[in-house]
Amino acid sequence: MSKDKFQQAEQKLKTITDFVRFAATEFERAELHYGHGTDNAWDEAVALVLQMLELPSDYPVVMFDARLIKEEKAHIINAIRSRIESRKPFAYITNKGYFAGIEFFVDERVLVPRSPIAELVENQFNPWLISDEPRILDLCCGSGCIGIACAAYIPDSEVLVSDISPEALEVAEINIEQAGLYPRVQAVESDLFSAMRDMKFDLIVSNPPYVDAEDLADMPAEFFHEPEIGLGSGEDGLELTRKILQQASEFLTEHGVLILEVGNSWVALQTAYPQVPFSWLEFERGGDGVFLLTKQQLDEHFN
Ligand SMILES: C[S@@+](CC[C@H](N)C(=O)[O-])C[C@H]1O[C@@H](n2cnc3c(N)ncnc32)[C@H](O)[C@@H]1O
Questions:
Q1: What distance lies between CA 89 and its chain's CA centroid?
Q2: pLDDT in tens, 135-159
Q3: Hey, which of 5, 51, 73, 80 would disulfide with 94, CB 3.0 to 4.6 Å?
Q4: 145: Cβ below 6 Å to ligand 1?
Q5: Global model pTM greater than 0.90
Q6: Distance of CA 50 to the CA centre of its chain
Q7: What are the tens digits of pLDDT across the range 67-122?
Q8: Which domains does the chain have, with CATH numbers?
Q9: Do residues 288 and 266 touch, judged by C-beta distance below 8 A?
Q10: How remote is the CA of residue 209 from the centroid of ligand 1, in Å?
Q11: For residue 266, how many other CB atoms are within 10 A of its CB?
Q12: How far is the CA of 52 from the centre of ligand 1 (A)?
């Protein structure tokens, strides 16, 4: 039986450079969709090859001419083949996702981390988080990336991460353990605020599902590997956002703030609530659709 192009590559290619170049060409040819950690074929090829070799993302390029051993070649070729044939986001192949410079375990129980909120976490939510020992809630936490990064960047914070999905929480628990952040980070299963009775937070931060029905139907194949409960939120993408807006104030301290991502649904949100003074946050590294409201503003407009 004749060998296919992947088997031929595995036999002929020698160095990291060879495999990165091969992967990038094949990714282009297969017209993959990017957006789960990278935004082009070359960066995705570099990331996939380095991660399969357990090498850091800043591995020196001069070392790319190092020759690979047989097992490493087979491992990389399997990953390239899987990325193309299954259309899985590459984070599900390497089981690694990155958020605010921290590595997280990810698999198909959770969305691949990619929220612009990372930039706010790295800046310790300056100037909005005024308490020295803030209590933070990461609502709809998925892998736990936002809440765990909060605890890593804000040393005296206490963080609760919550999700309705027990499967997602299993992944969040793995990540809390991996980051060594017990007991400062705790995880709880909760349908939005249902398990938070009498709790108060200085910051509620959330990247809930917010994709509207039309966008959900049009998504590239890569997104169908992600849990649907993490993406869709009713016809206009705002089903969960409306509930969060109605309920959040009860769980905020007097100076507390809500920071919520709604992505492309920001237009629908502004149209639905023209009287609400949403502060739309700006990001140096790109991204939009994230707003801030204070407890006072929530009380004024939703209670
Ligand atoms: C967009 S994902 C975000 C995950 C994570 N915060 C991140 O940035 O990668 C949304 C998450 O919301 C969770 N979710 C959906 N409905 C929920 C609900 N009613 N209450 C709590 N979590 C919910 C999903 O299980 C999913 O993990």
A1: 12
A2: 999 999 999 999 999 999 999 999 9
A3: 51
A4: yes
A5: yes
A6: 20
A7: 999 999 999 999 999 999 999 999 999 999 999 999 999 999 999 999 999 999 99
A8: 5-94 (1.10.8), 100-302 (3.40.50.150)
A9: yes
A10: 6
A11: 20
A12: 28
